[in-house]
Amino acid sequence: MEIQRKHHKIWHKKTLALLSAVILALLSGSCAKPDNGSRPLRQHGMELVELLAQMADSTQYTEIMGADNPSFEPLVQGIAEGDYTAPAAVYELTFPSMWKLLSELGEYDTLDGLPDSLKDLLDARSASLLLTQMNALTGTNALALSSLYTAEKIFVSSALEENTIYLYLFDSGYPIAVSFQCGEDHAVKATAMFLLTDGINADSIDQMKEVLMLFAPDCRIRLLEE
């Protein structure tokens, strides 16, 4: 009984410490930080890539987030084996509004009856919805695991004119996608996640285009120069 009490106290302290760290992290990331447009979006994205690389390298993070589930093991191993130090290539993806996207897919009536506020919300989230659908192609485990390995930041920049995705491809490991969402007064919300889709690398961009065409026929892709 005494041993159980000690274990409970230790667990309670660790939980409080973890919650404190999470709260501090959320608070530090919730304020938009101005950069006066001096830093390119690519650099902001790389900061999130570095965070995901730290997550991939931490067995403690994997255990805390519950990603040590045996059903996730092949995907977790693939994430951990990657080298995310420097991308082999970075692609910019721009895509139509949710209205136009559904119209091209013949599902324009899907938005009928929705309040304008919800239509605007869906339009703002079209990038993240696209990435979610791409992970869903791999299966439910990929979809669930991708939600555990995410990072985001908010900053102020005049560099972003429309919602955009930067896709970072590496020689090993999975691609990392960073979606940049426009906000008010030049605020930008950037969200990064692993794209747990096999076969997408710097040498198979045509294959990626084929996958994207399933969801966003009017998506535009261009290689970003160094």
Secondary-structure blueprint of this entry?
Layout: H1 2-30, E1 33-34, H2 41-56, H3 59-64, H4 73-80, E2 89-94, H5 98-104, H6 116-124, H7 126-138, H8 140-146, E3 150-156, E4 164-169, E5 176-182, E6 187-194, H9 205-215, E7 220-223
Parallel strand pairs: 1-3
Antiparallel strand pairs: 2-4, 2-7, 3-6, 4-5, 5-6
Helix pairs in contact: 7-8
Quick summary of this structure?
By secondary structure, the chain is an alpha+beta fold. It has helices spanning 2-30, 41-56, 59-64, 73-80, 98-104, 116-124, 126-138, 140-146, 205-215, and strands at residues 33-34, 89-94, 150-156, 164-169, 176-182, 187-194, 220-223. Strand 4 and strand 5 (176-182) form a beta hairpin.
Descriptive account of the structure:
With 226 residues, this protein is an alpha+beta fold. It is built from nine helices and seven strands, in the order H-E-H-H-H-E-H-H-H-H-E-E-E-E-H-E. The protein has a seven-stranded mixed beta sheet with strand order 1-3-6-5-4-2-7, sandwiched between helices. A hairpin with a 6-residue loop joins strand 4 and strand 5.
